[in-house]
Amino acid sequence: MAAAGAGAPVHATGASRTLLVVGDSLSAEYGIARGSGWVALLEQRLAQQKLPVRVVNASISGDTTSGGRSRLPALLQQHRPQVVVVALGGNDALRGLPLDMTEANLAAMARAAKTAGAKVLIAGIAVPPNYGRKYSEDFARLFGTVARAEGTALVPFLLAGVADAPNADALFQPDRIHPTAAAHPQMLDNVWPVLRPLLR
Hints:
The protein is α/β, with parallel strands linked by helices. The protein has helices at 38-48, 65-79, 90-94, 99-115, 133-150, 184-195, and strands at residues 17-23, 53-57, 83-87, 119-123, 153-155. The chain has a single domain, classed as 3-Layer(aba) Sandwich (Rossmann fold). It has a 5-stranded parallel beta sheet, sandwiched between helices. Helix 1 (38-48) crosses helix 6, helix 2 (65-79) runs parallel beside helix 4 and helix 4 (99-115) packs parallel to helix 5.
């Protein structure tokens, strides 16, 4: 999840609730046209369903859970969200960072958001098996572990139906890490059923 610029904040006007997304390149429209990523598609869906929610996309390509943890307090203070989506961790794995560090950072972010009065959704991610079976399995599991411990909502795998699709190669950019625009509607469909109840 190579370093690039931050995804531009996405705002819906006239909203009574605020949804904050803190993610990495998978949420920051890396390598695809602006407005085609799952967060932008989420804003469109909210508008279509006449749900008064302002979406703030604070995702930065290349960000880790440590980066998200350090950025979150200011974001909570600035935007005062009612719902926070944490979609981080992939870059931790790509850099081989300790799993307990990733887990601790995600837990700290969940606690900070809850303390600020927000509901929390954690979006999990997986790494390819070439990282070693044990590391890959333990990494995939830690998102659920944090969600259970902190009482948050969970999307077990943000790229379900993409990374494991029969045509997966066609749904990824040449780096085989970042999804194409064609994959982002599926990513939104993975998030939506879990997110929708939090917006009530």
